[in-house]
């Protein structure tokens, strides 16, 4: 049974088998306006032999609703602002949580939904040596350059990007940016689910589980 957990500036729910010495742990990152309970059910479905933690974003928008960073910092709902988001502060907070809770040689598999999907890529784009696999669900990548981008073009780590064909929440600009960036910085597994809107389907869950199994446990 999952329990509450605090570290640094973030809160989270962790699995009962959480241990700082796990070879790999699943880190779940919710979307804009949600909280740590939103993706927690995915933990036991995806973690396989790994413990999991579902983290709460640091920016409180309303009771029970959190964000990793403001979508439109200037108040202007310009889609380009979301594409060029600056999630550095939230990225640092997630890494502080991980460093406080896992041994230095443990790795993470980052799974994020929507804005949390961008955060999953942020972990990869800042400290790829600690990321065993990255899963982006109905998310995107920021166009802002990140510290490890050049390294990723050479190493091409494994990334799963799944999205719905009927998703109207993620802008065309964000999809285009992500479609350009991921193939040149990762070994990409991309899935588009034609009838899915802004959510996660059973088929997508199965595909992510298979992806993580192949990346984390295959010889």
What is the name of the CATH topology?
Answer: Rossmann fold
- Give the amount of beta strand, in percent: 25-35%
Structural class: alpha/beta
Question: Overall 3D geometry?
Answer: globular
Q: What gap, in angstroms, lies between the N and C termini?
A: 30 Å
* Largest sheet descriptor: 8 strands, mixed
Q: Output the helix-strand order.
A: EEEHHEEEHHEHEHEHEH
**How does CATH name the architecture?**
3-Layer(aba) Sandwich
Number of domains: 1
What is the residue-averaged pLDDT?
90
Q: Which regions are unreliable across 5 or more consecutive residues at pLDDT < 50?
A: 1-8
Helix content: 25-40%
CATH homolog superfamily = Alpha/Beta hydrolase fold, catalytic domain
Number of helical regions: 8
The number of distinct β-strands equals: 10
Please write the CATH class name. Alpha Beta
Q: Which helices and strands occur, and which strands form pairs?
A:
Blueprint: E1 3-7, E2 10-14, E3 24-29, H1 36-39, H2 42-46, E4 52-55, E5 59-62, E6 65-67, H3 79-83, H4 88-101, E7 107-113, H5 115-126, E8 131-137, H6 149-155, E9 158-164, H7 172-185, E10 187-193, H8 202-216
Parallel strand pairs: 3-4, 3-7, 7-8, 8-9, 9-10
Antiparallel strand pairs: 1-2, 2-4, 5-6
Helix pairs in contact: 4-5
């Amino acid at each position: 049974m999952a329990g509450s957990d605090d570290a640094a500036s973030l809160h989270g729910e962790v699995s009962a088998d959480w241990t700082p010495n796990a070879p790999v742990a699943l880190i779940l990152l919710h979307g804009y306006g949600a909280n740590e309970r939103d993706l927690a059910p995915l933990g036991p479905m995806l973690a396989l032999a790994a413990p999991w933690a579902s983290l709460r974003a640091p920016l409180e928008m309303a009771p029970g609703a959190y964000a990793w960073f403001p979508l439109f910092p200037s108040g202007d709902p310009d889609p380009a602002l979301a594409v060029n988001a600056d999630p550095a502060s939230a990225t640092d907070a997630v890494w502080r949580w991980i460093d406080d809770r896992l041994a230095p040689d443990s790795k993470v598999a980052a799974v994020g939904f929507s804005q949390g999907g961008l955060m999953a890529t942020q972990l990869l784009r800042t400290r790829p040596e600690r990321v065993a696999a990255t899963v982006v669900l109905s998310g995107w990548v920021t166009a802002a350059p990140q510290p490890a981008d050049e390294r990723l073009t050479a190493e091409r780590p494994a990334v799963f990007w799944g999205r719905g064909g009927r998703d109207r929440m993620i802008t065309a600009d964000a999809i285009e940016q992500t479609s350009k960036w991921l193939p040149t910085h990762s070994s990409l597994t991309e899935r588009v689910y034609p009838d899915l809107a802004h959510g996660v389907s059973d088929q997508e869950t199965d595909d992510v589980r298979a992806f993580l199994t192949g990346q984390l446990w295959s010889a």
